[in-house]
Amino acid sequence: MKPLILSILVLILLPGRAVPANGPISEATETCLGCHALSTPGIVADWKNSRHSKVTPKEAVAKPPLERRVSAEKIDEALGKNVVGCAECHTLNSGKHPDSFEHGGTNVHVVVSPQDCAVCHPVERTQYDQNLMSRAHGNLVKNPVYLNLADSVNSIQKFDKMRTTLQAPDEETNADSCLFCHGTEVKVKGFRNRETSQGEMKFPILSGWPNQGTGRINPDGTLGACTPCHTRHGFSIETARKPYTCSTCHKGPDVPAYKVYEVSKHGNLFSSHQKSWDFNKVPWTVGKDYTAPTCAACHVSLVVNEGGDMIAERSHKMSDRLPWRLMGLIYAHPYPKSADTSIIKNKAGLPLPTELTGEPVTQYLIDSKEMEKRLKTLQNICLTCHSSEWTENHFKRLENTIRTTNEMTLTATKIVSTAWEKGVAKGLAQKDSPFNEYIEKKWVEQWLFYANSTRFASAMGGADYGVFAEGRWYLSKNIQEMLDHLQLMLKIRK
Amino acid sequence: MKPLILSILVLILLPGRAVPANGPISEATETCLGCHALSTPGIVADWKNSRHSKVTPKEAVAKPPLERRVSAEKIDEALGKNVVGCAECHTLNSGKHPDSFEHGGTNVHVVVSPQDCAVCHPVERTQYDQNLMSRAHGNLVKNPVYLNLADSVNSIQKFDKMRTTLQAPDEETNADSCLFCHGTEVKVKGFRNRETSQGEMKFPILSGWPNQGTGRINPDGTLGACTPCHTRHGFSIETARKPYTCSTCHKGPDVPAYKVYEVSKHGNLFSSHQKSWDFNKVPWTVGKDYTAPTCAACHVSLVVNEGGDMIAERSHKMSDRLPWRLMGLIYAHPYPKSADTSIIKNKAGLPLPTELTGEPVTQYLIDSKEMEKRLKTLQNICLTCHSSEWTENHFKRLENTIRTTNEMTLTATKIVSTAWEKGVAKGLAQKDSPFNEYIEKKWVEQWLFYANSTRFASAMGGADYGVFAEGRWYLSKNIQEMLDHLQLMLKIRK
Amino acid sequence: MKPLILSILVLILLPGRAVPANGPISEATETCLGCHALSTPGIVADWKNSRHSKVTPKEAVAKPPLERRVSAEKIDEALGKNVVGCAECHTLNSGKHPDSFEHGGTNVHVVVSPQDCAVCHPVERTQYDQNLMSRAHGNLVKNPVYLNLADSVNSIQKFDKMRTTLQAPDEETNADSCLFCHGTEVKVKGFRNRETSQGEMKFPILSGWPNQGTGRINPDGTLGACTPCHTRHGFSIETARKPYTCSTCHKGPDVPAYKVYEVSKHGNLFSSHQKSWDFNKVPWTVGKDYTAPTCAACHVSLVVNEGGDMIAERSHKMSDRLPWRLMGLIYAHPYPKSADTSIIKNKAGLPLPTELTGEPVTQYLIDSKEMEKRLKTLQNICLTCHSSEWTENHFKRLENTIRTTNEMTLTATKIVSTAWEKGVAKGLAQKDSPFNEYIEKKWVEQWLFYANSTRFASAMGGADYGVFAEGRWYLSKNIQEMLDHLQLMLKIRK
């Protein structure tokens, strides 16, 4: 067989593997690979298959604008000439990393942070920093109401003398529960020596580790992690664009985005036809690279049509395409202005974006003009496959669902408030947690599970999920159950 | 490389894409594509990948009988000579479509309906018309009992003076809830002008739109939609044959077919090996094109063995292979004779296929001979991979499960009836909804969720789902909970 | 095109199908295939695609040690010279099979059992025999406490005179419920004649059939089945290595391994990248054949690095890599020593591995040294992709979760015990089932669903599942609900 035929065969048969060999590797990375190919073969193999191992930053910067995967205008020659290997990231900004330690002759750090990634990807880092997800730790922990809810979930309950008492959750429980996704605070507790195949070596002792939460506080003080979506050590855009990745945090009844997507027509098409899609192309061409949106297509990615016209700019501030915040809070409301939501205070003095009656706390939330702008940005993507009529009506229906689910939450709030007023339960006014009694927990489920789920189902066209699975059936049943409970409590008190 | 080699390579490397270019396109469709390739690139790209864009009806009719994908014996020459493009469907039967409007020099309609599809696919349309799914709108909305259940789910509940009142659901809520799958009634409310990239253009205003429910009432008065399964604008048989498609409506706890399939051995094999199956072949050869059935294989598709012998004829009247109706109603029962179930009346005068005691209302249901015939049709498919003993015993076990789950429902019915009789809840006899109180909602869950799920799990060999996930554990716990509630209500009344 | 090019093309284009034709087939199997290619085409096609149809045992034994898929040192020449077809398994050890019957001139048996498989795979059979899964039938049925729990789930409840009575479940219900996965007892009830396409033929009548439970009791008296994981008639290692297979039994809330895996980063990577993995290679090379573990990688498979160094030996005694038993019982505890857990007795005389207070019954459980050994075996796999610090901290966190979930179970146990003591519920001391009343069922959910799920989520890094989906939210809410119920019962009794 002639060489030409063989080359053509290779190019045709192995799409995406056309790069015949990995690119130039720095001496420092060569040293790392020397041991780690044996000690952590999975990491090394993953990296070898990655784009990081094949393209130098210098080459990456030189791509045509729409095809660029790095946003730095210029990258230092010394860094740019070799592919992005172990040493390139794990020795970057070394002085800023308290977890940096001498390892095989070099100072390396364990926790690569957004400021390291920002050397090549500064725009993405800045955008992500303005994204709620980068603040997910503080937005939970620095908000006393949310923290109280978290504690009511994670505490150990003891039973004695016909009552229960709560013992505050330990750090490991928090890391294994809410902070798994929200992000822990990773701190250097010291260093210690360990036996390794290379003899005794020094390693940092980290608390809150391991963790890949989106709002992780890193030892260098930066907020957030890139790896929940751009998984180590392949950092593949394919991974980030697949809804499975989003689902690791967005699947539970509190935020069932993936479950709703699965029963939507979009999810149906993704599941049925993804094998023929190209998840690695930049920019991402609708109809060619994919035929139905994934989470990334609607919320993050740079999308173009076959003519190369821009349909949506890439943004790692996901709220750029989100007028409403549908989830997590008592009522759906216009998106908060600041990524740091712990600064919000409502009229009642609570750190909540609405009053207990649902009225939005407007000064902390985006205005209708900004909402309209974000909606248009999102709708541009819908319009690549749907008519204007279809698209407008879809969002009108969502707005109606926001209104009705907020009303169903208000009804539940009135019932629990009556329980507080009439003294059959104790809330904030009684100096007690509003989340620790049975009727209060039912109230939480009304908004955190059922109203949220119904809105997601409406927003993403996965209605089946919003009826019986975790939606309107429970919204209505739960009210009846709360009312029954209230009436019973009042009756037996007499 | 020689041209011959290249051609062979293309043929081998691109299976299913062997059609070298799209077929002849009508002038009208060329006009549509002129703008829409830019304005809705996703739709155009989807269609370009579709069989509709590659094969003319004339060619389709000429295929050998078993390979035919169209059932019309003859197709009009003018229509048949070009591939099936935009204009072919969206201008067909124009005079019958109230949503038809002048658009770029042609009268087009938005909502392509079964009578349009029937020009090439008349047998499928007729069969589907005899299928419960095409009547899903009326079967819900024209049945006062079911409508009352739907309203109890979708109404907005208000709380005042220690009681709740229900405000009937608005049209948008219904469209976003039950009717999302059951189908809305799509009506033309008028026309309006819109700014487009081509200047101001007229478009119809549609209520109940968007919707892709299986029993949609179209503006032309026809019932049903083909697109829930044959998704626009690829209309691919691959999509329809994948269980993900069925799952968009058949996944919730009321009808968990997909969830049961997932934990069944059939689903296990589908998930593990689908990548090497051929979902596009007609007819579909067991063992060659697929090695374990999907929903379509058992319930719809034309299945043959490798020798080309018929194992099952294609039918879009899915009940052709279904002796029992397992789901949706209070008790499982023989399949209804008519697709329109709103005509059924039981002895108590209720539009239900059984009495409240479970006794079937035989005159509206198929008889044992017809049941036997349908069972045999279904079992023919089982027998391609299972022995007679295996197959018979499997269905004996299902019949046992139907009996026991009906009994567990009867027990729940007796408890709720006692509550009605003793005056601690209000049912039909008390001129109240039988679905709006707590104990009544528990009763609904007994049959709509737990008995249904247990039967599906038995029918499809996904037992894991029918025990703890949504099956017998809850069937038994729910009875205990209902009884506790009844006893408590009676006790505190004294 | 030259023949050489064609051959190369075939070899390149059809990876895994490089075996040009099926191997030598025995005369007896030829006879089977003669009819069964027509009567059960799906089975024959599945087998034809299988390795069994392509490789003779003789060839299989001759492979290099790490690549061997058979563990027999030597296989009888007569058996070894042909590929493993119908007759090779279904006529093996014929005299030991009570379901053996004369069929087309040969004695064949329906239920191929582990002792048949053991002719080529003796090590796997012995290991599996020491695995809890092979004893799953007896471990449930011979343990009066578990059997009572199963009966409380599967019984038919009747309602009369304001109380319910339980009617013990029939055999078919048990086979369709718990024993579907745990395994039925398959017995020969006689023989009968059936009409077939070949005229009347004799077949055995089997009770408890069909069944593919892991602990099935076979007609030949052997325990267990290989086919739940190595599905008939492909018996492919690819199937067994995919988590979908494990999920057929390990998905419900009682044992949500698959659901947790799905939301874990491992599951995320499997779902996103499995299409480029090689599930058929033996041994299985981390980083090359797969880039994130499936169930099999951590718990069963022979895993090596690219240099061919052993990372984990294959074991079909899955507990070889499991220090703790996290699921199924009231409290998590060190793994039982014996696969037969029905022999365990605690101080209270109950067949449980812990006291009701959670204290482990140490003489039946592995000691800390054995636990440490198993943990190291498992951690070796983690260490291929994770640092020592990461790995150790992960398991420390799991141990913390075991402790806290056991505590949350203890609290629930104290509440139900108080109900028993105070006479508002009846437990063992009152000669009643501890599983049939409402508060008792809540108690069961505390450990069987919520504590289990939380531990799985912690063990496999799928935290999202362990918080709101079926984890800590319910652990805490359930206690509050049980306490409310207890207090109410005490109050209204007065």
Name the descriptors.
homotrimer; 494 residues; mainly alpha; 3-stranded mixed beta sheet; two-stranded antiparallel sheet; 22 helices; 44% helix; 9% strand; disordered N terminus
**What percent of residues of chain A are in strands?**
5-15%
List how many beta strands of chain A DSSP finds. 11
Largest sheet of chain A: 3 strands, mixed
Oligomer: homotrimer
In which order are the strands of the major sheet of chain A placed? 7-8-9
- Give the end-to-end Cα distance of chain A, rounded to a whole number of Å: 95 Å
Average of the residue pLDDT scores of chain A? 94
Low-pLDDT residue spans of chain A = 1-20
The tally of helices of chain A reads 22
Global shape of chain A: globular
Rg of chain A (CA only): 25 Å
Please outline the helices and strands.
3 copies of one chain form a homotrimer.
Chain A: H1 3-13, H2 27-39, H3 41-48, H4 57-61, H5 77-80, H6 86-90, E1 101-103, E2 106-108, H7 114-117, H8 122-129, H9 136-141, H10 144-154, E3 156-160, E4 163-167, H11 171-176, H12 178-182, E5 187-196, E6 199-207, H13 237-241, H14 243-247, H15 257-263, H16 265-273, E7 284-285, H17 295-299, E8 303-304, E9 310-312, E10 324-325, E11 333-334, H18 368-382, H19 388-421, H20 438-459, H21 463-469, H22 472-493
Parallel strand pairs in A: 7-8
Antiparallel strand pairs in A: 1-2, 3-4, 5-6, 8-9, 10-11
Helix pairs in contact in A: 2-3, 15-16, 19-20, 19-22, 20-21, 20-22
